[in-house]
Write a structure and sequence with these properties.
Oligomer: heterodimer
Distance between the termini of chain A: 25 Å
Shape of chain A: globular
Strand content of chain B: 15-25%
Largest interface: A-B, 33 and 27 residues
Strand order of the largest sheet of chain B: 3-4-9-6-8-7
Number of strands of chain B: 14
Strand content of chain A: 25-35%
Helix content of chain B: 40-55%
Structural class of chain B: alpha+beta
Radius of gyration of chain A: 17 Å
Number of domains of chain B: 2
Number of strands of chain A: 10
Distance between the termini of chain B: 38 Å
Number of helices of chain A: 7
Radius of gyration of chain B: 31 Å
Largest sheet of chain B: 6 strands, mixed, barrel
Shape of chain B: elongated
Order of helices and strands of chain B: HHEEHEEHEEHEEEHEEHEHHHHEHEHH
Chain lengths: 227, 413
Amino acid sequence: MSAIHCHQLCKTFRQGDEIITGLDHVDISIEEGEFVCLSGPSGSGKTTLLNAIGGLDTPDSGEIRMGDIRIDQLERGPLADMRLHHIGFVFQAYNLIPVLTAQENVEFVMQVQGIPAAERSRKARDILREVGLEGMEDRRPAQLSGGQQQRVAVARAIVSHPDLVLADEPTANLDSVASTHLMGLFSELNENHKITFVIATHDKRVMSYARRLIKMQDGKIISDEAQ
Amino acid sequence: MQGFRLHFVMLLRLSWRNLWRNHRRTYIMLGAISVGVWAMIFMTALMRGMVDDMLNQGIHNLPGHIQIQHPAFLDDPSVVNSIAEPEGELLAALNQPGVKRWATRIKVPAVIASERESRGINLLGVEAEAEADITGLPAQVSEGRFLESNQDQGVVIGAKLAQRLETRLGKRVVVMSQDPDNNISERGFRVVGIYRAEMPGLEEYNVYAARDTLQKLLRIEGRVSQIVIVDQDYRDIESLYRRIEKVTPSTLEIKPWYEIDNYLAAMFNMMDGFVLVWVIIIFLALSFGLVNTLVMAVFERVREIGLIQALGMRPRLIVYQILLESLLLLLIGLAIGNGLAIITVKPLESGLDISMVAEGMAMMGASSMLYPNLTLHDMLLANSVVIILGILTSILPAWRAAHLDPVRALNST
């Protein structure tokens, strides 16, 4: 189900009296196991495209397919189910539920999926170990550094082996060491678990990890190159 | 089922922890709910106690839960509308174990005169032994004694009447009434007892003499005005009423207390309505705080709600989570409120002296002691109203949370 095809996607926003173009007839296909970076200046449409692919936002026109499913035509409930079972999200900040511990945050998605407690707990511990957070399972987000919080978010995004991980500026709030560590982790997961990654960023260090770089400007794709 | 359990555990954990994110707000809201619930139950117990007392007093004054009499007696309570003492099937039914007490009574209008004053009164010929269960009068005798037998030659009068007649214990009074042939019947009685009624107004009018003595005075041997029956509980007399009704001769009229006194019946029927209205009024005051708390809780967590939407939580589950949070708040508040109500009402159940407002209470038909009545029914009603209306008022903030736009929610500051 992982292949994503966007056809003639358009999205505009109203800001006061002004109409802003978020996406302008965007055509893009992303195949299973790809590691794609969306780059471009602020307002270029990276996040809008990411939100549309993830079903968080609905395009004004055009279509988005994930496998055989038309994401843009799904109702709220089925859309939530699709995100739950097929997509992992990593956002720039405020990624975690503050009242849950690191392990509970990782377990959250599995719990909504209905996975039994023992299996959930085992998988959460394994993935936290994999992202280098062993021994921090019982800490709440406020007790973790920014980098550690992002790693918990990554662990949560990948723990149930989604087909696709969408990450929006995942390194924006991290120092260079934490950024390098996180991107190394993404690469490793992409290679080992064949998870498709689509990362929106304007951080050149992040782009260096991508195997395909798509540049956007004013809601349009201006270049799409393999690296 | 397992999926439901998993979701429930997850929602419960989220709701519980979210509840304590802002301790101060939660404590304030819990305080408001607890005090509100306490006020609901405490005031309901006082009202229930007062109405119960008014009903009991009223039923004591009728008296009895069921009465059998001549069909014209209630409109014209004169000696001509007397009935024969019970016999046969009726007597057998009255003597069955289900009947707590029954007695025959004579009730006629009369005039009582001392050497100084005279007054119009209700002259009551009663069975001395039964009167404790029928009206509770023997316990109210403050001077002298109550009647000792059905042939007792004395009378028991109220303290207020004694004052009006300027007479006292041991003095003689003359009682005049009419016999069935409209001849004046009169005789002298010695005042053997003076009572102080729970309702002071009655002291002036009700004069008690022995039944057999009055039968002789009024020349109605073997006849009485009423047969009065007392069941175990005035709230539940239907089965006894049906049983007695079956064997009551068709020439007699049988009536339950709620048909004899419409005011008492209306009071009885309206009490539950009063309680419900009272509970809802208190809840309405509470609901503003509750909705405000939930709206604030949602407002503070907009970004978090956007996140859980993005992670794939269905809107339905978000609604459940907010409602569960509200339910937890309500349940804790209810537990504290119920506890406070029990702690404060129980010590007062032995009686609350309100003699300073006794005259006002007497006008309403209540006595000078108030016995708060904490019933399971009223507690369940208050708790149910708070939970049901609490959840209903929480639906709007919960629905709004579930239908936030995830992108806007995630980008909110």
